[in-house]
Amino acid sequence: MSRYLIVALFLHTGFLYLWLFFGQGSLQLSRIFGDDQFNPQSPAGLATATAFELEGLLREPYGVLDFASMANRIVKFGVLADLTMTEKTVDEAIIFSLLGKHFPWWQPEQSTYIPWHRRQKSDSHDTGIVICVGSRNKLYAIHLIRILRDVLHSKLPIEIAYGGDGDLPFKDRRDFMALDDNIRLINLVDLFDESVGSLRHGGFAMKPFAMLASRFRRVIMADADAIFLRAPDQLFKSEPGLVETGTFFWHDRAFKRPTATAKPWVESLLGARGPSPSLSQTTFWTDGLSEQQDSAVVCMDKGRPKVFMSLLFSVWMNLKVVREQVTYKNTLGDKESFWLAAELTQTPYHFNPWYASCLGILKNHNTVCGSQAGQRDSRGDLLWYNGSMRRDKWKPGRQLANITHWMGGHQNWSSLTQWYLDPQTTGPTASLWCLRGDSLTSVDSLDIWSEMQTMVKVVNNADDRYFDPHQSYAPPPPP
Length: 479
Prior knowledge:
Layout: H1 3-21, H2 26-33, H3 43-57, H4 67-86, H5 92-102, E1 125-132, H6 138-151, E2 158-162, H7 170-179, E3 183-187, H8 194-197, H9 206-213, E4 216-222, E5 227-228, H10 235-238, H11 240-245, E6 247-251, H12 262-270, H13 277-280, H14 283-287, E7 293-301, H15 305-317, H16 320-330, H17 337-344, E8 357-364, E9 367-376, E10 382-386, E11 405-407, E12 418-421, E13 433-436, E14 440-442, H18 449-466
Parallel strand pairs: 1-2, 1-4, 2-3
Antiparallel strand pairs: 4-7, 5-10, 6-7, 8-9, 8-11, 9-10, 9-13, 11-14, 12-13
Helix pairs in contact: 3-4, 4-15, 6-18, 9-15, 15-17
């Protein structure tokens, strides 16, 4: 074949693609490639149409305030991802190419779990725990890992995500690798464009990035200062809401700040559509609570395409320019971005019905004070708490919290429960909370009391080995 004929065929095919893109050539192209690919009633045809829509959206600019435009893109990507997974005739290269164009700041590794990737690298795991760690919260992460392994006997693999050498130096990384042979490190600045993500010392923002980058399909994201009271290994099988939706979120403290702006902002994003049933029935929505989600632990099944794409939306909300100009001006860090991404894209999601509990000491007959906010499983049993095992994680030293009682949070806003900050710890880092209510339990009556006592010994042993009095272990203050 002469080179002139080859050039002519190339130009002819190119013009046909352009004709299709501008809505004129579908009939002719269907004769070349087959009717099914351009039949909007077929899965392959729907995939083709969705791909061309996403290609067209690249020509429509949007700003950091335009959450609706990004939600529209995420919904379309969810459709294309689902079709790519279920329809073998849809080439996965199409969605990979479009993702690279819409989100050029993300460069996934071969081991990153991506649900439609048919040649997934074999070292991907089904379920695992991801912890974002820097030198400031390294010791808390060691506490968590030792508790998971030595007290709760969890077998789940663990990934430690960090933001470059300055965030977690080599010496600290070496300590983690020596802890356990089922720990892997992820340097997020190798996977995301630092000029866009700004993840070096990124703090709260790192968490959705780490979940997206993980090799796990089913991800349990845990803050370094979270403490599990029961092994989380079976959560994706035992929690009905997680099984149904592929997500499991927990409510924050049922507390009202006069200056809170989260709900009005969410209302403005939803517009005339209004809230979904999942949101409209929450106390955050009906009573205007300050925060909706406690994101110290987040569970998501990335094997579900809509869940995967809502996670990608959450990552976008935590990009440097978006979080600084919008997200963090209306919410406290990353915490609301997980459920909000699902809400804006109409992706089903599940919140545990109980609001956060308080673990600490008994102040009087109906009040418990402490830094730790407890969270339950679907049966109402304590599952984990945040705030580390320190009496006050904001202060230096090794003093552990004295946890003698548990005041349970309710499933709705009630005059029977009231949160307030202890006036003896006022200041910019005040963190000793008190909960007054009617659901008081002595922790020595709990079925996990023996494990809680063992945790104290394990943490003290870890402190003996790793505690450095010259190192600040206090996390950075909230944004």
